[in-house]
Amino acid sequence: MEKEETLRIDNYCFVCGKENPKGLKAKFISSNGKAKAEMILYKEYQGYSGIIHGGIIAALLDEACAYAGISLGYYTVTAEIKIRYRKTLKVGEKIIIEAFAEQIKSKLIQAKAQIKDSKDTIIAEAEGKLIIKEKIEKS
Ligand SMILES: CCCCCCCCCCCCCC(=O)SCCNC(=O)CCNC(=O)[C@H](O)C(C)(C)COP(=O)(O)OP(=O)(O)OC[C@H]1O[C@@H](n2cnc3c(N)ncnc32)[C@H](O)[C@@H]1OP(=O)(O)O
Questions:
Q1: Which of 7, 35, 106, 129 is the most buried (most CB within 10 A)?
Q2: From the CA of 82, how far away is ligand 1's center (Å)?
Q3: Nearest of 139, 74, 89, 76 to residue 119 by alpha carbon
Q4: Positive or negative, the Cα torsion across 70, 72, 75, 80?
């Protein structure tokens, strides 16, 4: 039988990797099933002029869900994610990304995430299903 691939962390994650020169370098803090980051996205990440690309927003929401799952002690992969884009996100606006995750089956974590602007307006929301691949060993 084929051995299952393990997930490796090498700081090159497109969203959070400190070593990735082309990444977003988002800094998440997470604990007890919750994750949070604050950041500003610049013109490099736009689609239409002045508006941040929806794929970038989706990547941030996905990452927030993953970090919320990590804080429960598991590395996961995303099986499904549903995004609702409520408002356009303008280039240069400060955003707050938050997620909440709970384990609902032995291998399944359900997560919700949202991005708000500095006026507390919801820009986008997500619901994700994350499949547990491995337990994080405490070092
Ligand atoms: C501090 C630490 C720093 C860390 C920094 C780095 C962070 C980096 C973070 C990066 C984050 C980036 C995030 C990313 O980008 S992750 C990368 C993007 N995602 C993927 O590549 C996933 C690709 N897909 C797969 O690998 C498989 O299809 C998966 C694993 C998803 C399912 O595989 P498979 O189809 O073979 O399933 P199974 O037979 O093994 O079943 C396993 C269990 O799962 C249940 N199931 C399956 N699908 C669903 C579903 N849709 N809804 C509900 N449940 C579902 C299933 O019922 C079963 O449960 P049970 O019957 O056992 O109860």
A1: 35
A2: 15
A3: 89
A4: negative
Q: How long, in residues, is the chain?
A: 139
Residue 13 sits at the vertex; the CA angle it makes with 12 and 14, to the nearest 5 degrees, is 105
Instruction: Using alpha carbons, select from 67, 85, 89 the residue that is nearest to residue 76.
Output: 67
What's the N-to-C CA distance of the chain in angstroms?
30
Residue 19 lies in a domain: no
Q: What is the pLDDT of residues 43-100, one digit of tens each?
A: 999 999 999 999 999 999 999 999 999 999 999 999 999 999 999 999 999 999 999 9
Instruction: Give 75 Cα–ligand 1 centroid separation in angstroms.
Output: 10
Q: What is the pLDDT of residue 4?
A: 73
Domain range enclosing 111: 29-135
**ipTM field:** 0.94
In a domain? residue 1: no
Q: Which residue is listed with tokens 């070593």? A: 19
Q: CATH no. for residue 39?
A: 3.10.129.10
Does residue 79's CB lie within 6 angstroms of at least one atom of ligand 1? yes
Q: Is this prediction's pTM over 0.80?
A: yes
